[in-house]
Prior knowledge:
The chain has 117 residues and is of the alpha+beta class. It is 34% helix and 20% strand.
Amino acid sequence: MRTTLRVGHAYGSDVRKAEELLYRAAKGNSGVLKELPPLVGFEDFGDNALIFDFYIWAHVNRPMELRRIRSALRFRIDALYREAGLVISFPQRDVHQDTLKPLDVRMVRSVAARTGE
């Protein structure tokens, strides 16, 4: 059975290093078939990440076996990335305010602070 893991890399990441680590994660997993090599595809420049799809093939008898293999691969990918200093991306947003005049910012004490609670 073929399965896919999607990994988002932070912009600025060394994409060739990321590719190498994904292959290394598969090589170290006994559930991944050696006869059908894994494939790493640089799928897209996403809004929050560089998107890679990681295709692997495994011989499984039950769906839970495939879930265990995928989970083990994710744990291994996380460990390899941490060792290499690569960051798995997460959604982020920059907010830019286009104002014609300076913003009025005030510090206000909370209700609990005003009432002594």
